[in-house]
Specification:
Largest sheet: 3 strands, antiparallel
Strand order of the largest sheet: 1-2-3
Mean pLDDT: 95
Strand content: 15-25%
Number of helices: 8
Radius of gyration: 22 Å
Length: about 170
């Protein structure tokens, strides 16, 4: 544990509260895999710095430790970053709903991954990689055309338009 700073912050009642900002090297379990990372915590002034019960997530950026864990995990294990996923999808001209359909993923899951709210699982990562390999994505869709047409129809998506984006004819 290392002391980084001493700061004050105003609570909801307008009172100034003093904190000690500390950095702690920790092992986090991300998707069942251990990950060594430095986490930052705010500890109320005067509280025992060695008692983890006193550790507060940074009040100015509550998700800081999660965000850095996810970033490090993506770097360490070669996972796509949210910006890369969004860019690959946009490069194909696909909407979130169309992409979710093609990857057999829920719209909300894909949206959460693209917005960095959740870390994709390995299974999801494998599917998301199809977005960076247009020929493989097209082959995937070609192999299951009838299924995608059926699902697109049920989800009120225009299958003809979707197939055109992938330069595929609509199956008869």
């Amino acid at each position: 544990m290392k002391i980084i700073n001493h700061i004050t912050s105003t609570d909801i009642t307008g009172n100034e509260i003093a904190y000690t900002v500390i950095a702690v090297q920790e092992t986090a379990m991300i998707a069942g895999d251990p990950l060594e990372n430095t986490h930052y915590y705010w500890v109320p002034a005067g509280a025992d710095l060695n008692d983890t019960a006193n550790y507060l997530e940074p009040l100015d950026q509550i998700d800081q430790n999660f965000d850095t864990d996810y970033q490090l995990y993506r770097e360490q294990y070669g996972f796509l970053f949210p910006e890369e996923i969004k860019a690959a999808r946009a490069g194909l001209g696909l909407t979130l709903r169309e992409t979710a359909l093609l990857l057999a993923m829920s719209f909300s899951t894909l949206s959460n991954i693209e917005n960095g709210l959740v870390l994709q699982s390995l299974d999801q990562e494998i599917k998301l990689r199809l977005l960076t390999q247009p020929a493989a994505l097209t082959q995937h869709v070609r192999q299951h055309q009838q299924l995608f047409v059926s699902r697109a129809t049920r989800q009120s998506l225009d299958a003809r338009k979707l197939f055109a984006k992938l330069h595929l004819p609509l199956p008869q």
